[in-house]
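step: validate -> pass
step: tokenize input -> pass
step: predict -> running
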Amino acid sequence: MRRTTALLVTVGVLTAAGAAPAAATIRERFTLHEEWSHAEDCGFPVEVTGWRDDLFLVREGTNQDAGAFPVVNRTSWSETWTNPETGDWFTISGRSLFNEVSATRVEGSIFEFRAVDAGQPFVVVDSDGTVVERNSGSVHFSYLFDTGGDDEPGGEWLADTDFWVAGPHPSLDLAPCDYAVQLIG
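step: predict -> pass
step: emit ->
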């Protein structure tokens, strides 16, 4: 969950350069691939290996939204959590679409962005293939962001203004180690 939250925050910061309407033109398109491996301490050792693929589209705002650079990010990721002492394992994975759906100029280079992250961003599956937990639906949030007025993506996050969740998101209350204790501890 920490990784998911950190990734959402990172995507929000990277994409908070703006959210223009659908009529915006694509300024940049790029993909990222990341792989990792690390150890966790869940009261017992856990080896975590994973990967993540992202497709980013950076759009360029026009007219009253000029200076805002909305982002669409399609994400897929998966982690395998293994107890090295027993060999027991489970996976946590997700697929979602993050979309900055609007940007409203507050004043100068400050915009309020509304964004939606939709899909199944967090699914826990045990080693038998049984789905243990699944988040689905969407997370909606808005925030104030200063683009700096330089007509380039980037800027400074100022404040969150709204947050709400649609659909079941049970994992918001649990950390990955909670699943490790239940499934492989």
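step: describe -> The first helix runs from residue 2 to 15.
step: cleanup -> pass
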